[in-house]
Amino acid sequence: MENVNAGYGDVQVLWDVSFEVRAREFVVLVGANGAGKSTIMKTISSLLHPTSGTIWFEEQRLDHVQPYHIIDVGIAHVPEARQLFPEMTVLENLEMGSLCARAKPHRKESIEWVLDLFPRLRERRKQLAGTLSGGEQQMCAIARGLMSKPKMLLFDEPSLGLSPLLTQEIFRLASKIHGEGMTILMVEQNVKQTLAICDRAYVLENGRIALEGKGRELLENEEVKQAFLGI
What we know:
Order of helices and strands: EEEHEEEHEHHHHEHEHEEHH
Distance between the termini: 32 Å
Structural class: alpha/beta
Strand content: 15-25%
Largest sheet: 6 strands, mixed
Number of helices: 10
Oligomer: single chain
């Protein structure tokens, strides 16, 4: 992402935002509510087009393509608040994640892979997604994203609305997925836990990148401690 400005109507949210995610990295964007974290995710996914600046993925320019093209190039977005199809079963939600041409031929093996990754979903594969618990819904949303066989996974606030125990489980699963070679960009308010597990992080303040560095180094940064950890 290079010098990206974006917003909603006359309200500008992102100001000259530049950052990078390298192949197989786990990168986190942290910041307070309203800092622009979810706007970055929507801009990468082409749900929102920047007013200026460029977005590149593997030498392909993405800042003014259609959202379906994002899936085609290998980026999957696990959205804030899950956004499952509540009247469909878990299995049907997973199938919806594999509709792109790249993923559809591998649907059967992908379903087995994600059900092995999330055993609880195997138990509930015939259950309506809307009747799952919050943690199970988040697992289903992640699994649906993985069904597109992405090269890069975008997580938008995966711990939102979850208990501390379930939050730890979601972060453990994210680390496991990363360990299998997946590139991850995560937006998250749970600063302490995410900085502990990521490779690098960027701190977003009022729509601008304020700090960047290795996750554990930022955990020791006095500014981060005061702003986000209450220390």
